[in-house]
Amino acid sequence: MANNPGRLVCLCNHVTANEIINVLKAGAQTTFDVQQFTAAGTGCTRCVREINAIVEHHLATKKKDPQLKFDFEAGN
Ligand code: FES
Questions:
Q1: Which of 7, 8, 13 has most ligand 1 atoms within 8 Å of CB, for mutation?
Q2: What's the 45 CA to ligand 1 centre distance in angstroms?
Q3: What is d(CA 3, CA 9) in angstroms, rounded to the nearest whole number?
Q4: How far apart (Å, rounded) are the C-alpha atoms in residues 62 and 9?
Q5: How far lies 56's CA from each of 1, 10, 19, 73, in Å?
Q6: Which backbone phi and psi does 48 adopt, to 5 degrees?
Q7: 39-62 confidence digits (pLDDT tens)
Q8: Can you give the pTM of this predicted structure?
Q9: Of 1, 4, 63, 75, which sits with the fewest C-beta atoms within 10 Å of its C-beta?
Q10: Which residue's CA is minimally distant from atom 2 of ligand 1?
Q11: Taking a C-beta distance cutoff of 8 angstroms, is the pair 14, 2 a contact?
């Protein structure tokens, strides 16, 4: 996965990596969520593997974020 957030991930529905990352930051948790919010991966499905990789990378990075612990402790 190249580190170019503006790159087109889903050619069928013209969805960029940035758009996928934005829905993940907004609360999407799964590839299915990303598909619901962006339509990425709902055409030929060739890009689903890359969407999965972006979701997994985002969730792994999120777990390392100390802000999440703070939010959890604050009851948010
Ligand atoms: S490239 Fe994403 S559904 Fe076809």
A1: 13
A2: 5
A3: 12
A4: 21
A5: 12, 17, 15, 24
A6: -60, -35
A7: 999 999 999 999 999 999 999 988
A8: 0.79
A9: 75
A10: 10
A11: no
Residue tagged 């339509």 (tokens): 39
Take residue 72 and report the two structure tokens written for it.
């959890």
Inside any domain, residue 2: no
Residue in the block written with tokens 């069928």: 12
% the chain with pLDDT above 70 = 80
> Is 47 near ligand 1, meaning CB less than 6 Å away?
yes
Using alpha carbons, select from 56, 45, 47 the residue that is nearest to residue 21: 56
Ligand 1 neighbour 45 (Cβ under 6 A): yes
Residue pair 11/67 in contact by the 8 Å Cβ criterion: no
Find the CATH number of the domain harbouring 54.
1.10.10.1100
Q: Is residue 65 part of a domain?
A: yes
Domain count, the chain: 1
